[in-house]
């Protein structure tokens, strides 16, 4: 049966850490008992009963001792929960935050509560004793904690039996589920405490925080961390303070890259302004869906929802269509990219087609000229790669959105869809294809590796694959079985037959093994009309989200994966 973990910690200082831990446990297939988040004073008896009813105890300890109910010898609820788990000999996993990273009021000693400081230091010391029955792990931030929780409990999760509902197994949550309702991104070193406070105050939105440094030395690692958090977030907001804005102004490229990533992944983002007007937004940034002031609330030291925070809670879901997802946990994200020219790139080649011959040779030029023909083919491309219109009316972005709407419509949902999606709806996540980024020596390559590992969709324009700047780019993606991929023949499909494609200079041959030998249903070549594209997307989008474990059409692997999704033993 699925095992239940009791998650214990103080509330005031560890809200984002609890959220990160709960998400990590859910992804591992555990049920999480996270008692009484809505109440500051839960009944002690019920907390202890919940510990007794759970299979595993997980305790997070930092700088606060916690509230001490009457009648329990001055012990806090957090310590009582640990003592109960130890008394019942529950498997205990202990995680202790390094004192060196505590800031401000995260410590009882700094708050001036020296009696509480004495008690938490004694408890921390006891948990670290060599003769302690537990081996604690030390962590710095919420990302570090989630990683160590996953590492510590992975084996326990693998040993767990699937939960049964009568004659049927209850499947685990979808691995791509968007478990963070709102990701709040702040500037590292400026907004750390503010991000943590906002996350603690908005528990109903399952929030999480992420920090970003615009300086080149740290930006790469932070972009990866933020992107991995976005992969599981339903909505995103950028907290902008005067100090944070000043840091971004000193490193404009880093700041612009962050904001464009937020806007691209979710299609929108929201600003949370701490003492700044909306007009302070730097030129060149994508416009936010909305902006909300939070400076007075943060400055007041309040923890309850009121004033500006009440306006945020009321107005945020209506500020953008996508923001309504903030309270909808039944969603999975599908990453996609489009290998196609922009209009500017198309205009260059349309004006100087000999560039194809000069860079790629005569065979490539012959094929390019045949596909392009004599018409105004460049007008089918737009400012962004996903604005490309392969079959006249309707961009790739619009065709994908249409397919997703169809799949998400309950009356069209098939048993196969439900098995693949596990009751979730799809939300698209866009990764712009840039030639310089899709190389293994590029700074953002780790982002793309992570995206590929989660499973993704790549659509390839066969004409653009002959552009000197694009030819051969993305090959490492196209051949990977975790990637759902199709090539589209939008101009003259008669010229680009399947045999021609396989032998062509476009290097489509990297897909031959998947398409011709393995008969991989998630790899398709030479889609030449809108109806066929719609049919293929309708069939393959749920399968793309079934997980990267479904490698190609290998019958044994596919059957094994389908059985695991359906919960069959």
Overview features:
five-stranded parallel sheet, elongated, Rossmann fold, alpha/beta, 569 residues, 23 helices, 17 strands, 41% helix
Please, could you describe this protein's structure?
- This protein has 569 residues and is α/β, with parallel strands linked by helices.
- The protein folds into three domains: 158 residues, Toll/interleukin-1 receptor homology (TIR) domain (Rossmann fold), CATH 3.40.50.10140; 150 residues, Rossmann fold, CATH 3.40.50; 235 residues, no CATH class.
- It is 41% helix and 16% strand.
- The strands form four sheets. A five-stranded parallel sheet has the order 2-1-3-4-5, with helices on both faces.
In a nutshell, what does this entry contain?
The chain has 569 residues and is an alpha/beta fold. Helix content is 41%, strand content 16%.
